[in-house]
Amino acid sequence: IMALNPGIDPNNLQIGQVICIPRDERPACDGMYYVVRPGDTLYSIARKYNVSLAELIAANPGIDPDRLQVGQLICIPKGKPSPKPCPGGHIYVVKESDTLSSILLKFNISVMDLMAGNPNLDLDRIRVGQELCILAHKDRGCPCKKGTKAYTIMPSDVPSHGSVIAALAMKFNTSVSYLLKINPNMPPGDFKPGAEICIPD
After folding, report:
1. How far apart are CA 108 and CA 168, in angstroms?
2. What average pLDDT does range 84-102 have in this prediction?
């Protein structure tokens, strides 16, 4: 400050006096600032905030790791978000072409399997980049609900080309996605002759 304000008496500042303040040339900190205390080292600060030494140095260009000064500001970068927990399964990241039906078909799981791993999932709003916990299929029980009725798939329901579920959707004037929703315990691969399913009433 003295170098930028030659001739100013630091012991005799006046109210309303204009002072030149040096610009902070440090890059913006994508995280939080920490004030160095006595006994701190860069390593101890990194451990305290659960970041790597390399990340700490990268967030503070020009810093001398061996010459920290008490009162010095250190940028603590944001920690990497922990991966979504998915015990007993694996994480799948939704791609641009994905739909509810295509995801269930891809992993041959049911709506209930998907909801078991993603209890807060909005089935009508699956977004690109969203992380889904994919669990293996498990019989979770599912009686037909109001507005639907039971139907046993017949051998004649098997098309010469395409999937059984797509043929059933066409037969009952509905969509594959809706059939999967009203049969939430059935993976797409289980729609075969002899299986009892729910269809629109």
Report:
1. 17
2. 89
> pTM of the predicted model, to two decimals?
0.51
Model pLDDT for residues 115-156, shown as the tens digit of each residue: 999 998 999 889 888 889 999 988 776 678 889 999 999 999
Query: Is 148-200 the same fold as 89-135?
Result: yes
Q: Where are the domains of the chain?
A: 31-77, 89-135, 148-200
Taking the CB of residue 98, how many other CB atoms lie within 10 A of it? 17
Residues 81, 85, 86: CA angle, nearest 5 degrees: 145
User: Which is nearest to 51 in space by CA: 71, 70, 74, 72?
Assistant: 74
Q: Residue 177 belongs to what H/E stretch?
A: helix 176-182
Domain 89-135 belongs to what topology?
Membrane-bound Lytic Murein Transglycosylase D; Chain A (3.10.350)
Residue 65: CB atoms within 10 Å: 13
Does the domain formed by 31-77 have CATH 3.10.350.10?
Answer: yes
In degrees and rounded to multiples of 5, residue 56 shows phi and psi of -65, -45
What are 70-79's pLDDT values in tens digits?
Answer: 999 999 988 6
> What tokens appear for 58 in the block?
């990268």
Q: What CATH superfamily is the domain 148-200?
A: LysM domain (3.10.350.10)
